[in-house]
Write a structure and sequence with these properties.
Layout lengths: L6 H18 L17 H29 L6 H21 L3 H25 L4 H18 L3 H21 L5 H15 L8 H23 L2 H8 L10 H22 L5 H18 L5 H13 L3 H21 L4 H34 L1
Length: about 375
């Protein structure tokens, strides 16, 4: 028996109270489990994941070769769709059977194979209408986010779903609106990740998926890959929208995040909030010239407010990548490039000095 008031007893009481709190919210049922779960080291996870993918690839090669040699399955849309559905259902059963890295990644590989069959069937059935193909695949991926009992699979499906939604908007003549709306959605998801405990896993999966798709879509826009795809289908990207429309929506997303965080952490006065908004507007103005600056800043702020190391790392990596690419692709002399970097560095130093002088110090004094 643990003595009353001891450290071990306090930990036990904290566990009991936490379990009762979760039970009141309807997140758990029954008695509190007494066993402890131990997580595997990262290198074991990588090895198990690699083994799962390797085994699945060899199995798929054998199955694909057998079906191709014995059946004309690729000539029938219904057969491909049915085989894809059966394969995805098999992946679902596999993921339900056990919770380890090998099963999780093998199940993801099985699901991807089934999705590939369905994608081939959709390509044949949409009759060269790319917006129908991308929207149908987005609906499929959105459904898999809610159906599949694997967080890795949910993140992957959410990433593909958002990417397909962006392509659907692009094929409808709204290519620059998608990334702005996606930045707004990403901001809301990360700011409200833990506000709805019952749906936290789905919100987290959508938050990761929107973040990864944002980085990929922004990279495509920066290197004009998306415009090449639209040109391939004969779609004019500037019929209804211009690039600055999406940039303006992205600025709204950054202002929204700044304002929410300023309200959450209760800055001393509205003057401090105004300084933050002014600083945000300066970053927004610079982002019209230096694409990617706003996305990296947004991810860095969202990661910092929740101490999310991966998100902060992605934000820093995005800033370094897009700023370096901007510097490299500038069609000016090296002297002018150096002057541009000096001005941008001075701007960042002024922003830092302003925040320390007018916001953080006075805020701390107000709280004291």
């Amino acid at each position: 028996m643990v003595k009353k008031g001891s450290y071990g007893d306090e930990i036990m009481m904290d566990d009991i109270q936490a379990w009762k709190s979760l039970e009141r919210q309807g997140l758990v049922r029954g008695e509190q489990p007494e066993f402890e779960t131990h997580d595997s080291p990262w290198y074991i996870k990588i090895l198990m994941a690699f083994s799962g993918w390797l085994a699945s690839i060899f199995l798929f090669l054998f199955m694909g070769f057998s079906l191709f040699m014995t059946l004309d399955i690729f000539d029938s849309e219904f057969a491909m769709f049915t085989l894809g559905g059966v394969t995805i259902f098999g992946a679902y059963l596999l993921l339900m059977s056990s919770k380890n890295e090998f099963i999780e990644h093998a199940g993801l590989a099985f699901s991807l194979a089934g999705q590939a069959f369905i994608a081939f069937a959709l390509i044949s059935g949409t009759n060269d209408q790319p917006h129908l193909l991308s929207s149908s695949f987005a609906i499929l991926q959105g459904a898999l986010v809610f159906l599949m009992p694997s967080f890795v699979h949910r993140v992957f499906s959410a990433t593909i779903a958002f990417y397909c939604i962006n392509f659907t908007l692009s094929f409808l003549g709204l290519p620059y609106i998608g990334i702005g709306l996606l930045m707004l959605l990403t901001s809301w998801l990360w700011l409200h990740e833990f506000h709805y405990p019952k749906y936290q896993q789905f919100i987290s999966a959508f938050a990761y998926g929107s973040t990864f798709s944002l980085l990929y879509i922004k990279g495509n826009l920066f290197f004009a890959q998306q415009e090449l795809v639209l040109d391939l289908f004969g779609i004019d990207a500037t019929i209804y929208t211009q690039p600055w429309h999406g940039q303006a929506l992205a600025c709204v997303a950054l202002i929204y995040v700044t304002w929410k965080l300023a309200s959450r952490y209760r800055l001393a006065t509205n003057i401090h909030k105004g300084v933050l908004i002014l600083t945000t507007l300066l970053i927004c103005a610079a982002s019209f010239e230096m694409t990617g600056l706003l996305l990296g800043s947004l991810l860095l702020i969202l990661g910092y407010q929740s101490s999310h190391r991966l998100l902060m790392g992605l934000g820093i990596l995005a800033l370094l990548t897009f700023i370096s690419a901007y510097y490299y692709f500038l069609d000016i002399t090296l002297l002018e490039k150096s002057q541009t970097l000096i001005l941008f560095g001075l701007l960042l130093l002024i922003i830092r000095w302003s925040l320390k002088k007018w916001v953080f110090i006075k805020t701390e004094a107000h709280h004291e």
